[in-house]
User: What shape does this take?
Amino acid sequence: MSKAFFQRLENSAHDHRLPLAQVVDNLCFNEQGLIPVIAQDCSSKTVLMQAWMNREALHKTLHTGRMVYWSRSRHRLWEKGASSGHRQKLISMSFDCDGDVILCQVEQQGAACHTGRPACFYFAVEPEQQQVRVIGDANPP
Amino acid sequence: MSKAFFQRLENSAHDHRLPLAQVVDNLCFNEQGLIPVIAQDCSSKTVLMQAWMNREALHKTLHTGRMVYWSRSRHRLWEKGASSGHRQKLISMSFDCDGDVILCQVEQQGAACHTGRPACFYFAVEPEQQQVRVIGDANPP
Assistant: This one.
């Protein structure tokens, strides 16, 4: 159903507009009601993290302009930075061709990663050495 | 199990090294055996797409240096660009703090999106207008 919705839009011309509510209604949330969300730093273009939203988190993010995710471990909405102060201001949002991924450009306050590192992707793969190298130090405990 | 593995690594110092096989063994593949993979253009830093890998796709990607995904619609391995020529050369790979997302820097040949648009995130949300705007034209059919 929702896949078909996005397939019909593939040949839409540049600048074609659709009602936001209609597109959101057709987004592909998974069987847990979640959709993956990539947060990218709007200035440096660093990919900061990937997390998940349900419909309510998406609504709150658009409504407040602050990134709100669904925490799969805590089973509740999670306003990024609400406890740490490391908030993410939403600058822009886009959906992908299949309607099953959200990309957000954000203004990150402080560290995006809960370890205190600037971004979550700190395990660098070194295939030739068959090793993984940690990039950056965690915050002092 | 794998979450605990990554939690134990949170305070690892910069430059700490681990065997690749051990880290891969502990990655969090979901109940379908898949892990989300973000492909980012190594030059422009544009987020091109998000797709999925199983263990075999990850192994083939690291072994061949070309991005190989698991196609959830076709239920088979999918070497990106094998039919379109729009291949992705792997430049670097990293894992996130929880071991449940992979980020790849790639060199993209041609368009990343199957519609012919340079990247998949071509539905721009315009919250104030309550609309979504298509960015870019599809390839002529």
Notes: Residues 21 and 27 of chain A are 10 Å apart (CA to CA). Chain A has a mean pLDDT of 96.
